[in-house]
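Much of what follows relies on a compact textual record of a protein's fold. An example makes this concrete, so a full record is given next.
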Amino acid sequence: MKKELILKSFLILVLTGILVMLFCAAVNLRAEQILDLRKTCIAAKDIPPRSKIKEEDILEIEVPQAYLQDHTFNEKTEIIGKYTDIQGKIPAGSVFFEEMLKEEKDLPDNPTAQLKEGQSAYTLETDLARLGGAVVPGQRIDIYVTLTRRDGSPVSGCLVENARVIAVKDHKGLDLDDPQSTGTPYLAILAVNRGDLPYLSAAETAGEVRLFSSGRSYDSTSEAVMAKDNAVVEYLEQLMNQEEHT
């Protein structure tokens, strides 16, 4: 008799425990249904302006659907690889608003961000007639100059070889692939050595500057170099020396 009471008590405790567990599971399930938990992403740490987002910068959490905000990125794949806006940082714990992040090509300072040490951005007004062929970002081009000496004799040749095109824009300053662009190239922005800028400026003032595809059009290892032992370079140096002494 005593053993039966003990067995019944044990069974009651077991059943009670099971019922409690089922009740808790039902409560949790109902709570989840009410809350409608959704996955979203927040900043795992302070992210400075003009930073490329990496996976370690992101923390995934679950929040009630009602707490999700409009115009935010909620998936890692939507965030990784984008850049924070140049004018502000993303604080730790913040969600990723769409206006906070930009594609690299859409950054306002994207051309200058592509410069390497010792380089400067050189902007040249151009048009279809002077391009000598299509020019696109990433391409290497040669900069040719045609000058007229004071005695009326012409001098022409390559001034800079393998200059990297970092942007091509229309007359409104828009990239050519922008939906609002005219599609007609007007400004070519080139990565050149900082020390070559005076030569390029003098060439624009004294003559005509044209762009042609380089023999290394898509060689990712080549960068701009000034042509050596060149009549154009020699004449530009003469002009620059004369200006210094006037």
Observations:
- The first helix runs from residue 2 to 35.
- The mean pLDDT is 80.
- The chain has five helices and twelve strands.
